[in-house]
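Researcher: Here's my situation. A collaborator sent me these components and asked whether they could plausibly form a single complex. I don't have experimental data yet, so a predicted model of the whole assembly would be a useful starting point for our discussion.
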Amino acid sequence: MILPIVRFGDPVLRQKGRRIESITEEVRRLAADMIDTMRDAQGVGLAAQQVGHALQMCVIEISPELNKERPSRKWIADKEVDPLEGMPLVVINPELTFTKKKEIGVEGCLSFPGISADISRAWRVGVRCQDLEGRIVEFDAAGLLGRALQHEVDHLNGVLFIDRMDPADREEWREEIEAIRAGGSL
Ligand code: ZN
């Protein structure tokens, strides 16, 4: 089922997600609905806050076409694997570790329609999370997958990409951001 996507201005986007202690039927249904919603909106990722739930869960999907344009890399136990394996990813209760080395790349956000900016992120992240079966999953990611994970895990902590925008970029988008906050559009 496709859910309405919450836009900037809704307080749920600033709420830190609650840890998911048990993977109930309700959690499974929410994950399936989040995947439908992300695909419908042609997004790369979606956090629970973006559909009105302050929970530690996000979904990510990178298509083969997008992977050609903006490649990803993935490692399991330091062995490089196909970055598209296991898509769509359902990421529950994630913890990230970040490399000091940074990389700039363009980002948008389904809660900020029409806005995009270059954001500096860690070049590679280590992820420890749970999947929908409750199993512990660990991997490292770089490229678009690494960036999407950082963007989505920020959402789970109430952090938005405008918080990480260069102040000059944020100033340039000021009117558009305010219009979204006010519930209208320019
Ligand atoms: Zn976002």
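Model: Some features of this prediction you could bring to your collaborator: The pocket of zinc ion is lined by residues 109-111, 151, 155 (CB under 6 Å). DSSP finds five helices and nine strands in the chain.
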